[in-house]
Amino acid sequence: MRRAFLAAGAILAGGVLMLSLAWGLQHAALASPQLLGRTAPSLAIQPPQGDPVSIAKLQGKPVVLNFWASWCGPCLQELPVLASGQQTHPGVDFVGADMQDTDSAAAQFESMHPHPYPAGPIVSGSYQDYGVFGPPVTVFIASDGIVTASFSGPLDQTTLDHYLALIGA
């Protein structure tokens, strides 16, 4: 009888541990806690065509700022989720900021994987200003320019929808 209770306790403890780990991986939202509640740092990207896109000039609409790189497998994994998010939330500006990459690799990635939002290398500001160490990291900015959340890792649709709700999308 005692062994049965110990076995049941071990199974329960293991289940709680696994659920906690899964929740933590799914909700790794505090990639940049020093930014939460503050004005988004200055940053601009240069898309392959057109003028540079400045995060500050997008104030007035919610912004989803995604830091990515051409060599980043999880970045490619989340690209359809971000593209779909842009199409289903036209009131939100999605921006892709290429980091730790070469211009030629970024251009090749962009030509092979088209999407409906501007993306390109950072030409003003820095990913470090956002507390980003490696991609993918997505920062959610409210229409008043305040950073509301940051998610480290590849986004899935449920997670994207959760964070879009936080910025009023």
**Structural class by sheet pairing and helices:** alpha/beta
Helical amount: 25-40%
Q: Could you give the order of the helices and strands?
A: HEEEHEHEEEH
The strands making up the biggest β-sheet line up spatially as: 2-1-5-4-3-6-7
Report the sheet with the most strands, covering strand number, pairing sense and barrel closure: 7 strands, mixed
Rounded mean pLDDT is 85
Strand content: 15-25%
Morphology call: globular
Indicate the CATH architecture of the largest domain.
3-Layer(aba) Sandwich
Total discrete domains: 2
CATH class of the largest domain: Alpha Beta
Poorly predicted runs are: 15-30
CATH topology assignment of the largest domain = Glutaredoxin
Report, as a whole number of angstroms, the end-to-end distance. 55 Å
Number of helices: 4
**CATH homologous superfamily of the largest domain, by name?**
Glutaredoxin
CA gyration radius, whole angstroms: 19 Å
Give the beta-strand count: 7
Give your account of this protein's structure.
Strand 3, helix 2 (73-88) and strand 4 (93-98) form a beta-alpha-beta unit. This protein has 169 residues and is of the alpha/beta class. It has 4 helices and 7 strands; from the N terminus they run αβββαβαβββα. The termini are far apart. Mean pLDDT is 85; it is low at 15-30. Helices cover 36% and strands 20% of the residues. The chain is globular, with a radius of gyration of 19 Å. It has 2 domains: 1-27; 31-166, 3-Layer(aba) Sandwich (Glutaredoxin). It has a 7-stranded mixed β-sheet with strand order 2-1-5-4-3-6-7.
